[in-house]
Amino acid sequence: MTQQDASEETEVDFDVIVVGAGIAGCVAAYQLARQGRSVVLIERGEAPGSKNLSGGVLYCRGMQEVFPDFLDEAPVERRITRNYINFLNAQSSVGIDYKDARLVEPVNAVTVLRAKLDPWLAEKCEEAGVFIMPSVRVDRVLTQDGATGRRVVGVRAGEDELRAHVVVAADGVNSFIAQEVGLRARQPLNHLATGVKCVVNLPRETIEARFNLTGQEGAAFAVVGDCTESVGGGGFMYTNTDSISVGVVLRLDDLIAKDKVATEVFDHFLSHPFIAPYLEGGEVVEYGCHLVAEGGMAMVGEIAMDGLVIVGDAAGLTLNTGLTVRGMDLAVASAVAAAVGIGSALDHKDTSKVGLAGYGEAFFASSAGQDMKTYARAPGFLEVERMYKDYGELIGNVLYGVFNLDDKPREHLLKVALKAFKRSPLKIRHLISDGFAGGRAL
Amino acid sequence: MKSLSVPELLAKNRFELDEEESHIEVNQELVKATGCGRAMVACCPAHVYTQEADGTISVEYAACLECGTCLAVAAPGALKWHYPRGGFGIQFREG
Lengths: 442, 95
What we know:
heterodimer, A: alpha/beta, FAD/NAD(P)-binding domain, D-Amino Acid Oxidase, Chain A, domain 2, B: two-stranded antiparallel sheet, 6 strands
């Protein structure tokens, strides 16, 4: 290194400051502490997890690489063995019920409740030597002019300043840090959705009977169509051990364009005649919401600058492929990659953007990072209006023609389908273009 | 399951209310000029915002679930919204 890195000369309080004790923050802090770095993890909630909310499904292989005993030790809810994909119309429901013994072992996905999971992660961090500061809100980052421009040298919280070689912004989808340093521009509304969710308590036997599960098995329902009153997005229902996480995710541009009220759509979904029976007799124990980054790869910009990296939701790392909705596994992958990049930067005493480049390289080389690129076209495809109304109704009408044995003679399936298709606003060119785009995007 | 109103849903949560400081500030002129109040009212899952008869937007910051949706739909500069001070605001028990 020709020019001495600015942060290496000044006194630091820690090697690394991690802002935000969610999944990305905790995993990054844990990995860095295990490298022997001094790490502080700052969390604005009373305790880790108290500000954190997710829909509920964690694809857990990456987490198991970090914590080999994750499935046995961590407070996870159920192991997803049943995925139900549902076109829900006002009067009809058509679904694909996918259950697979191969999803039982090895476990692929689990449901989690973050206020329970994240304290466990933070405990692991503490055991590894991370210093945790709860109830502290970081107000801004400290910067100074360095050899290669403005560099981040620490954070300010109220009157207190803390300095480190590297700051990890794991401060969630609203990342004020990423915005402050200019790594995240204001996002267009078609890149953002609001997730509205409640947790409904039910006895575990009731859940197992209603969702056709035994033991630790769990179900994940992904629903599109009338459930959101045709607003782009969808509904979800995930089984926990003795509760159900249920709610909707609504793309903000479409919610506004259709002049709908988010809470009314949420209520419409929960009281839909095909959803309500699952929740009958349950008691709402919590209500929450979360902004969801839906832009996929298009939202991910620079993820490092001199003295700073951003990870997880803060970096825009979420992926909606229509069938799987991912965020937490990407948070894990980015945190693991960040720890690799930061470790190498600290070893080489170069925590500039160039020195930290190992993070981006490691992330985009990981399977999660490659998936971000593979599915780069998915968000555009999922903005196609027809997904949320017309296709579900078409399939429902074809099946109605097949199963409704009224007094008229039957017609061959192809004829029934063509008739339903003619009545639908869909055109042949839609089927072709959507089929082609879907094949390429998903 | 009986359908619950937003206040009834919020009553299920635990909040640590910051009585001294609101974390939300509305620029009424800008909201009026840009017409973004309607979207703020419609999109907020906690019904923090209400449009009053005179067209101004009133704020019930104590109900805020801290998702940031309002900031995303508000016109730039129309809303000052940051997180509550450390330890205050929503404290999820389920998440």
